[in-house]
Design goal:
- The chain has about 375 residues and is an alpha/beta fold.
- A nine-stranded mixed sheet has the order 14-13-12-11-7-10-9-8-15, with helices on one face. It has a six-stranded parallel sheet with strand order 3-2-1-4-5-6, sandwiched between helices.
- Helix 4 (about 80-90) runs parallel beside helix 5, helix 5 runs antiparallel to helix 10 (about 335-355) and helix 8 (about 175-190) packs across helix 10.
- The longest helix has 20 residues, at about 335-355.
- It contains ten helices and 15 strands.
- It binds nicotinamide-adenine-dinucleotide (NAD).
- Nicotinamide-adenine-dinucleotide binds near residues 35 and 78.
């Protein structure tokens, strides 16, 4: 491409700042427009960031109609990801959509349909994909060294970390901690095992912290989950135990663990007396002996870890989107794959509401 990439931003709230801060670093990118439904918000956003010449609108439709763009960052709250992503794709614009992909499974299905029809990129903003610990854990699991992976569970969670803003209101976010940080855990666990199809979910969700004035400043306006746990059956006989918390009386919900027939791997996370820290442990039998070893990163892991931006996960999330457009490469975190992430979130939501196991039925895409 012998000209600059023309980029727009839809939804100019909190996370749009992280997107624009990365785009501004790139000499081959110009920010040409943006939209936010709050009058004047997109204009003020560009002024704050010193972006001259970007056109500001009060609807995504106007932006898409009036400005020629190669790509857009969709930074609206969860419930509106689909309604702005689909028209952008239909207009031939590549999309970097913030996580979670959507609120409902049907919205995610419609987004993937629009992506397939357009032939454009739909990538979902999971920046931890660019973390090198994640990369070497994935590499070990996918190498087959651990045999068939038959069980996995994620840990994580926050002792106190309800984010506030639009995150705690169902009309904007749809889900609470499940959609905010739970979808990252699902992506980490599922990506390591190449995203098998989810079949059924039995889940619970609670709001004991968000609804308690002792732990949250505005319980009256809190109407989402702050904890959820689920038992998920996946294709190929794999079981996944999910848990996530915005607040709890513990430092972590446990370790991230994958169990295989020939070995296991664990990301051990805990409070070391000063801060949370993590390390990767590998379990294998060698010559009949049970070996427990710590996995260390080896450098350079791949081209992305080299150079001045090594392990800057936000830099790579936005840079990779731009490079994929320029080089005509497929989406780095394809919507068609994250559809399964969304199917699990949707299943957890439905199962927790119904109080029983639900089956996951993904409508056909083609
Ligand atoms: N990747 C990350 O690390 C990360 C971190 C925080 C938030 N997020 C995600 O980013 C998204 C936004 O979060 P936020 O904290 O910026 O929320 P926010 O509420 O601060 O900002 C969302 C903005 O979108 C605007 N908006 C909503 N619907 C719109 C529409 N149809 N057209 C145009 N503008 C619209 C709102 O007016 C608001 O200004 C969420 O999906 C969230 O999960 C990702």
């Amino acid at each position: 491409m012998d000209r600059k990439l023309r980029i727009g931003i839809i939804g100019t709230g909190g996370i749009a700042n992280a997107h624009i801060n990365e785009y501004k670093k790139f000499d081959d990118v110009e920010i040409v427009g943006g939209a936010d439904i709050v009058p004047g918000k997109a204009k003020a956003f560009f002024e704050k960031h010193g972006i001259k010449g970007a056109q500001a609108f009060e609807s995504a439709e106007e932006l898409i109609k009036n400005v020629e763009m190669d790509g857009v960052s969709v930074c609206t709250y969860n419930t509106t990801h689909a309604e702005v992503t689909i028209p952008a794709l239909e207009a031939g614009i590549n999309v970097l959509c913030e996580k979670p992909m959507s609120f409902t499974l049907q919205q995610a299905v419609d987004m993937v349909k629009a992506q397939k029809k357009s032939g454009k990129i739909l990538t979902i903003g999971f920046q931890p994909r660019y973390d090198y610990t994640r990369k070497y854990v994935d590499k070990i699991i996918q190498s087959g060294e651990l045999g068939k992976i038959y069980y996995m569970q994620n840990g994580g969670g926050r002792r106190r970390g309800i984010p506030g803003g639009t995150f705690v209101k169902a009309e904007y976010a749809g889900y609470g901690c499940l959609g905010d940080i739970g979808c990252y855990e699902i992506d980490q666990m599922m990506n390591a095992v190449n995203y098998p199809k989810p079949l059924s979910v039995s889940a619970v969700a609670t709001d004991y912290f968000g609804k308690n004035p002792k732990y949250w400043k505005d319980p009256e306006n809190f109407n989402v989950d702050d904890f959820s746990a689920a038992f998920v059956r996946l294709e190929g006989g794999l079981t996944y135990v999910f848990r996530e918390a915005w607040a709890m009386h513990a430092d972590t919900l446990g370790d991230n663990l994958w169990l295989g027939t020939e070995g296991g791997i664990k990301i051990v996370t805990g409070f070391n007396g000063t801060k949370m820290e993590s390390r990767v442990m590998l379990f294998k039998d060698v010559c009949g002996q049970q070996i427990t070893s710590q996995v260390l990163p080896s450098y350079p892991f791949d081209a992305y870890e080299m150079g001045p931006h090594a392990n800057e996960i936000w830099y790579w999330k936005v840079r990779d989107f731009c490079d994929c457009i320029k080089e005509n490469r497929p989406a780095p975190v394809p919507g068609s794959q994250i559809l399964y992430n969304q199917a699990i979130c949707d299943g957890i939501y439905r199962s927790a509401k119904l109080g029983k196991e639900v089956y996951i039925d993904i409508p056909p895409i083609d």
